[in-house]
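hey can u check if this looks right to u? its 140 residues, i copy pasted from the old doc so theres a chance i mangled smth
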Amino acid sequence: MSRGPGRQQRNIKHILQHCYDVKLGNPSFAMMRGMYIEGIGGDPETDRLNPNVDRALKRALKSLVDRGDVIILGGKGGQRDPYRYALVEAIATGAGAEEPETAAAKQIVDEMARVAAKLGVKIPKLIEELRKLEDAEEAS
């Protein structure tokens, strides 16, 4: 029986929501680590977390991705091109949904992934196209 997300997972979701709210883009793990050091703890002078906390943060992020609460939007996962993360709620809101719950947002993102796969584009490109269509409809 699941008791919901743990403290680390809630902190990661708050960081991702903050990035979406202030339009910082889709953060990489390094950006999330920096925000975690500023807000939660760590040594800001050396920009380091305790290795155990760093490992727990990575593990919490991986479990959020595995559960589907967080989606990887870009990157190849290396030092030069790190993964970029976003909340499924933020993606669903960007697609036009009104403040969806996590379960509803997961369904919306799944449908978007199916459409994107059929069109041969990635989800961020699909969201751009949807916004362009909405702007065109509002203009007419």
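The longest strand covers residues 70-74.
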